[in-house]
Design a protein that fits this description.
alpha/beta; 5-stranded mixed sheet; 4-stranded mixed sheet
Amino acid sequence: MYQKEPAIVDSGADTTGIGGNTWLIIGKTGRKALVKGYNDDYVTQPHEIVTGITAINLPNGETVILKAQEALNLGTSATTVLSVLQMEEAGVRVNLKSKRHGGLQCLIADKRVIPLSIEEGMMVVKTRKPTEAELRDCEEIKISPSYVWKPHGQSDTAEVTPEEYYHLQSTISKTADVNLPALMSSLKQKKKADDSDQLKPSGENK
């Protein structure tokens, strides 16, 4: 019987951290990084940046090997945390909306669908240590980029413009809990009124 351990899929993690006993470390970069928690007072000793692999059993009976590059080696007493952003940068589609709320609740990578489960409020994927035969025969799926990962450079702080906001609202109109036509009509009427006020002589607005 294989020992399985949960890997938390976390949008709040800027870097994947490998922990537990289901991963094999197959490469070391020689670099290290600190791990900082939600509290500034929580900072650990430097952890090695490594490449690790683990196995996933799919519902169709297939086993695939997940390969995490540029990941922190947290040690066997820690829980694995998979960074959503790092996975997305590797081309993985991360669907964290739960099935109970109409979501897909899965990862999609290299045309493979990897279901997620919810454990104590956290979205997780079950991992296990691969066998020698699986390392030789099973397909390997990369879940992080191979280039040097610099999370501090992964920022998008640009303000959303009104045009981008209207486009966003239009894109999600079929699923959003808003009356989009009424909202758009109201916004357009307000804009026309504002434009009209700007064209009037100052005395007419008194």
